[in-house]
Q: What sequence folds into this?
């Protein structure tokens, strides 16, 4: 049978190769006995070299550890040094510098925005506090507190705090804004 590689646009299917033909090919027959012996010898030498190098490496690693121990370099100190070196490398990288600059700029802009917002809110509260309706509300609260203090002090324990608070709120609600300022003894205002 004929074997042909089919392209992407080739309309004919690929023909299969007979299994008998594939099994007839022996890859080991391509080497002569001398070549095979030479390759095995070289492989053995390489394995011995690898073993020797492993022993040398183990000896050098042991000597390395002993020298570090004499210098007082513990694994923890070494880890710390590696971390510090990595941290320094990261901080000096271009990406870190760009990110740091971007975050710094964003932080400054955010801070400026909050400052502006705080100023605006303070200004609004100042405007609101100076408004006539807030002044009226403030006066009513002051009168209510004054009335409560007066009634609690004058009753001499004759009523509970809830009763005094209720009567002060009732008295405060009945008054009109035109007569919320009147004179009383001991500089107390009644509302």
A:
């Amino acid at each position: 049978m004929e074997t042909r590689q089919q392209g992407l646009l080739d309309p004919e299917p690929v023909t299969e190769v007979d299994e008998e033909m594939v099994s007839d090919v022996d890859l080991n027959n391509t080497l002569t006995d001398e070549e095979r012996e030479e390759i095995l010898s070289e492989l053995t030498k390489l394995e011995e070299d690898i073993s020797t190098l492993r022993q040398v490496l183990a000896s050098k690693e042991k000597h390395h550890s002993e020298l570090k121990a004499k210098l007082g370099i513990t694994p923890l100190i070494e880890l710390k040094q590696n971390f510090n070196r990595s941290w320094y490398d990261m901080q000096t990288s271009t990406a870190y510098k760009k990110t740091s600059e971007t975050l710094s700029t964003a932080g400054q802009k955010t801070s400026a925005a909050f400052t502006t917002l705080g100023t605006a809110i303070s200004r609004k509260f100042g405007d609101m506090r100076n408004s006539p309706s807030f002044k009226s509300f403030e006066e009513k609260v002051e009168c209510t507190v004054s009335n409560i203090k007066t009634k609690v002090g004058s009753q001499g324990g004759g009523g509970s705090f809830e009763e005094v608070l209720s009567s002060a709120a009732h008295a405060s609600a009945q008054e009109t804004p035109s007569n919320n300022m009147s004179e009383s003894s001991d500089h107390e205002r009644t509302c």
About this structure: The radius of gyration is 48 Å. Residues 78 and 132 are 72 Å apart (CA to CA). Residues 33-71 form the longest helix (39 residues). Residues 34-92 form one domain.
